[in-house]
Structure formats: C-alpha cells, structure tokens
Amino acid sequence: MSKAYIFPGQGAQFVGMGKDLYDSNEVAKELFEKANEILGFRITDIMFSGTDEDLRQTRVTQPAVFLHSVIKALTLEDFAPDMVAGHSLGEFSALVANKTLSFEDGLRLVYARAMAMQKACEIEPSTMAAVLGMDDDKVVEICATVADGIVVAANYNCPGQLVISGSIEGVNKACELLKAAGAKRALVLQVGGAFHSPFMEPARVELEAAIEATHFHPPICPVYQNYVATAVSDVNEIKKNLVSQLTAPVKWTQSVQAMVADGATEFIECGPGNVLQGLVKKIWR
C-alpha cells in the first residue's frame, strides 16, 4: 500500500477556500496568519471573502492555492506520504509536503513565481486552450503545422484532454484546425497568458535566481515532477526541473502513470476542489 499525495495548481481556486480550516484548526490559523505577514498583505481576506476577480489575479491565485493545499496537508492527522506530485504550481506544495522546502520558503518562491509570470504575461498578449476528444500526439502534430505564431502543448491532463499554449493568433488558428480534424472541443481559456510555453522565458530567468537563493532539504519521499514525469529525490535535479517546468509542458498523465507503476495504490488530493482526483480516475481506470 503506497499513498500518493497530489496537489492542484492555478484554476482550482474559489472564494471561501480555506476558511473552514482557519476557523476550526489553531495550527492552520497560525500558518495563515504567518502567510499574511510574509506576503505583506492579508491574502486570507481575499481568499475568504474577496471577489472572483481579485482571486483570479496571478499574484493572488498562486499563493492562495498553495496555502490552502499545504495547510490542508500539514493539518491532516494521518499525513504520511510515500510519494508526492503537484500539477504545475502544485509542485511547490508537494515539495513542502515532502519537506524539501520549508513552509516559509515555499510561500516566498510561489509568490516570486507568480509575480514573475504576471510580468511575463504583460510583455506580449498570449493565451491557452483546452482540447478535448483527440489523441495527444495528433494535437501536437496539428499545432506544429500552425504557421502564424507559437503554439505548444502545455498540460497533458489525461488521455483525451490536452491544454495548448501560445500566441493569441496561433492558438485561435490551432483551435480551428483541431475542430476541423475532429476534436470534440477546442476552447480558448480565460487565463492571463501562455503558461508552460516559450512566453514564460522571462519568468523562468527570475524564478531560477530565486530558487538558487533558497535552501532545499533532502526530501522524505520522492516527488514526481511535471518536467520529467518520474520520481526525483536529488535536490539539484529537483531545482533544475522546477525551473524547466515554467516553459515546458506539465506531464500529469505520465506522472500519474509513473506513480501507479511504482506502486501507488491510493491518491489523496490536498487543496481546493477535486479536479486532480477526476483526472486520476481517467488515467488509472
């Protein structure tokens, strides 16, 4: 029996997330208040009673999802991971869960990542789209034929569900071609920019500097990282993969398959919602 703890990324947020933890658990309350001090603003006010628009700001969304996920995990009575993984942003939550990063350092890195990504989004307009009902390889093949703009695979979420990322004109053209080729849906997403694509290169440079300035500890269990979709325990490799993740696709399908192959018998999601549980069921039938 091996327990795999999994942590969601940006997009899982909702107003009110974490309030039950804050109100019912003293340790959780202390951690939330510590986060307010570190960030220099009361993120809990936005999480618990802000507007959807406020919560959708990248500089708020990423630390908010991180906080809810990590605090939920750290306050579980029987928290004992054999392996961990996170979807995009969730990888930082996973690294706090397996003690590679302290709570404080994890939050600072997530906030630095969020600010760097927000700045990168403002340099050049870009977007993402969800493609449903088509083989992943076929999606990639069609995207490669788009002549106008950049379009790349961004999130391998589960078989038949792949998110693409790139320039606005490139993504729009790719959606037209994908629907014409038989995709059930090719839907442009309401996001700030083209995450996990070359458009995030400026953010990658900033994040690399922040990671190099942060102390990473040997993990208590392996993390299955998005960039390589395999178990990683070496601290230097973990750092390198975290940096590479910003401009490379999230290999969630492949990561879950690797965890199952390595003995995972139970997947426990820590964070707002249960999106990853749904994906796991589609990957591991």
- Let me know the average pLDDT: 96
Biggest sheet strand order reads 4-5-3-6
Number of distinct beta strands: 9
Radius of gyration: 18 Å
Question: Beta-strand percentage?
Answer: 15-25%
Structural class: alpha/beta
CATH-assigned fold name of the largest domain: Malonyl-Coenzyme A Acyl Carrier Protein, domain 2
Reported for the largest beta sheet, the result is: 4 strands, antiparallel
Q: What does the overall shape look like? A: globular
**Assigned CATH architecture of the largest domain:** 3-Layer(aba) Sandwich
Assign the CATH superfamily of the largest domain: Malonyl-Coenzyme A Acyl Carrier Protein, domain 2
Low-confidence stretches: none
Per CATH, the class of the largest domain reads: Alpha Beta
> SSE string, helix = H, strand = E?
EHHHHHEHHEHEEHEHEEHHEH
The end-to-end distance, rounded to whole angstroms, is: 18 Å
Number of domains: 2
